[in-house]
Design a protein that fits this description.
2 copies of one chain form a homodimer. Helix content of chain A is 46%, strand content 16%. By secondary structure, chain A is α/β, with parallel strands linked by helices. In chain A, strands 4-3-1-2-9-10 form a 6-stranded parallel β-sheet, with helices on both faces. The first copy, chain A, has a 4-stranded parallel β-sheet with strand order 6-5-7-8, with helices on both faces. The two termini of chain A are 26 Å apart.
């Protein structure tokens, strides 16, 4: 295995960029390849079999680019596809649900944890199962937020309409005892200021994607796969199945990069 | 693999108990088996070949007890034996140096990191190599502290003599620019209050053993090896090659447990 091979990240759209942002910070030597399937986003309301199929298509694309490790930077795809893909590939594969779960249990002081995610992620019960298996005394309140991903993908995450949707959607969680809220979808950190404002400063928000990067870092060490420091900066690449323009605007805004190597592809 | 099998921890003596303490907190469902080779402690001044041999003896002992994961809770043994043992065993094996390295890089703001450890750990350069490979701009100052382990093993870690030894040993690090100091030996957290007092509050101390438990937790998830919550509390076991009495006193003091299942063994 080539230590200087890229790490592959994939998501239903631009949400996984919040994971890439953390990777740029924590793993400056690593080359990152990112694939966002914006053309078919959102995955959340789709049947599980279809999400599994789409996730396999993204996986095969990144495997053709010789990635050394694969990060499913999407909670929906993690909930549906992680076990099967991890079992099938010869490289380390990781998702975002376990890291989010561990961070939530570390953060909560009253064992009352909220989780927000897409319809599939919530219906799958992936978070509540994981949380209660590790800590049976924990109460988990889950809330699907079907409108959040479309707002982010259309780059309206700072608009007044976003504020209203966040307020309406989070109402059921607002007057509960939760002291920790897992952002169980990698798109949601783009709405973080609005979510924090709505939930109040007493609730700690957990960014499952950012937590996943600590796990990437650990597995790079564990498998002795870390990139060697090189003379030049790593040559990151971004692929989208959707609009190259919208993807570039969001990526530049969110990652603070001015030079981007973006390719529009079909899966 | 049986998820309810114990996790094995081993150390040259009682130092690894500082790792077990963190495991009791973060992983309450897990059964822990601990082996401390106090009869042959300290390992630090011994030739590397001998440390490798002793570490293999401890490994074989714990493997006979069907552990599902092995933690080399000793920096000296990690520096010398981790790669070979990890390659040879069919279960996950991890040490304390990588986690300490990652935590130090996360903590430092000025890229000036100190490392204290035994003679072998310092001579091996394990920490400075790992730190500089991840972050070439980091300056690493290392200091061997050969008198620290004997003080802890003889339960003098709160005595006036301990204070004097800590002060004299750390003198070369005291007036440097380091803002982070890795306790690169699992015995040292027992001297933590004295070390912190000597270095001042501007220096963040990194407990490599405590950091290792986050890695244990991740690997348990990654390999789907976490214990299922059980009706009864886990039945921890402790083994020492040295004095059962001294071991019990330090263990009760350090772990805050009043019931302990300790067995004196020969390797």
């Amino acid at each position: 295995m080539n230590n200087n091979a890229p790490i592959g990240f994939m998501d239903s759209g631009v949400g996984g960029l919040t994971v890439v942002r953390e990777a740029l910070k924590q793993l400056p030597n690593e080359t990152l390849y990112y694939l966002g399937d914006s053309a078919r986003c959102p995955y959340g309301p789709r049947p599980a079999e279809q999400v599994l199929e789409y996730t396999w298509e993204m996986t095969r694309f990144l495997m053709r680019h010789q990635v050394k490790m694969l990060v499913i930077a999407c909670n929906t795809a993690t909930a549906v596809a992680l076990p099967e893909i991890k079992r099938s590939l010869p490289i380390p594969v990781l998702g975002v649900i376990s890291p989010g779960t561990r961070a939530a249990l570390k953060s909560t002081r009253n064992n009352q944890v909220g989780v927000i995610g897409t319809e599939i992620t919530v219906t799958s019960g992936a978070y509540s199962t994981a949380l209660q298996q590790k800590s049976p005394q924990t109460t988990v309140l889950e809330q699907a937020c079907p409108k959040f991903v479309p707002i982010v993908e259309s780059k309206q995450y700072e608009s007044p309409i976003a504020r209203k949707i966040v307020r309406d959607t989070l109402k059921p969680l607002k007057d509960t005892a939760i002291d920790t809220l897992v952002l169980g979808c990698t798109h949601y950190p783009l709405l973080r200021p609005l979510i924090q404002e709505e939930m109040g400063s007493g609730v700690t928000l957990i960014d499952s994607g950012a937590e996943a990067i600590s796990e990437v870092s650990m597995l790079l060490d564990y498998y002795e796969l870390s990139a060697k420091p090189a003379e030049q900066l790593p040559d990151h690449r971004f692929f989208t199945t959707g609009s190259k323009n919208i993807f570039e605007t969001i990526t530049k805004d969110w990652l603070g990069l001015d030079k981007l190597n973006v390719t529009k592809i079909d899966l």
